[in-house]
Here is the input.
Amino acid sequence: MVSCLMPRLILSRVTQKKSISYCVSFQRYLYLDMHILIRKSIPPTLKALLFMLALFFACGCNNPDIGPYRAKVVYVYDGDTVKLDNGERVRYLGIDTPEMNYNKPPAEYLAVQAKEFNSRLVNGKNVRLEFDTVKRDKYNRLLAYVYVDGIFVNAKLVEAGYAKVYIIPPNIKHADDFLDVQRLSKREKRGIWGY
Here is the structure.
């Protein structure tokens, strides 16, 4: 019976794409499996160990790195990086905007406009973050697809011509969508494609 718990557990951890509802149903299955185990005559120490193990894995479903979660944007660094109310910095996945060059001015072409556009979309608002395979970069920033009020922010920046598609495998979930939007933006000479 314990072995049948493990494949579901591993599937949840490996794909990292299951929703919170899957985690809730997973907890329910885990509880049912554990209940069946406990009903049989098992030594009390093993029951305690199994209970702790079940609790450990059930709590893991509340980890925001596993699935989408919401947070409020409190600061916009540039066109593709923001700070959340929990202190986390988020780098938008799949795109790259012109750099502000805070340490070595001047800013790149359209960097200020990209920052302002991003700020109008997300600053002071609750956003939903969606993760891909790799969740943090070498600077320990969260890597995410960002949504606000039904708008896919990453794609909106590309559509407006303030961002180029910048795909780094294995984070390729929306690569085709971004490339389609970028083709349209180039054709209509928006933003960075207009000079």
The mean pLDDT is 80. The CA atoms of residues 3 and 93 lie 37 Å apart. The chain is about 40% helix and 20% strand. The helical segments are 2-15, 20-39, 44-59, 111-122, 153-159, 175-187.
